[in-house]
Specification:
- Keywords: Cell membrane, Membrane, Phosphotransferase system, Sugar transport, Transmembrane, Transmembrane helix, Transport.
- Its main location: membrane.
- It is found in: Cell membrane.
- This is Ascorbate-specific PTS system EIIC component.
- The chain is built from three helices and no strands.
- With about 90 residues, the protein is an all-alpha fold.
- It has one domain.
- The chain is elongated.
């Protein structure tokens, strides 16, 4: 994750030189107290990764599976077709 972040930062730095003024930096900006927590890089990354994993879990849960056999589908899925948590995963 760190290498991709550094690549993104270097690309943003390279592109950002052509926009805005040097005096107008992110350090001098004032942000609302409601979103001040997002100044912390670790917190922001945690929220973004959580959202990413949540979306991926929802896609995996509700995507169509190649098998039409309900037993296979209920074994693979976290939640069975009747809405109960799969017993295979309840032992975590």
């Amino acid at each position: 994750m760190g290498h991709q972040q550094m690549l993104g930062l270097s690309i943003a730095y390279g592109i950002g030189r052509f926009f805005g003024r040097k005096e107008d930096s992110a350090e001098t900006k004032k942000i609302s107290n409601k979103i001040k927590i997002f100044e912390d890089n670790i917190f922001t990354q945690t929220i973004l990764i959580f959202i990413l994993f949540l979306v991926l879990i929802l896609i995996a849960q509700f995507s169509s599976l190649p098998s039409n056999d309900p037993n296979t589908v209920n074994t693979i899925r976290f939640v069975n077709s009747d809405g109960a948590i799969n017993p295979v995963y309840s032992q975590w």
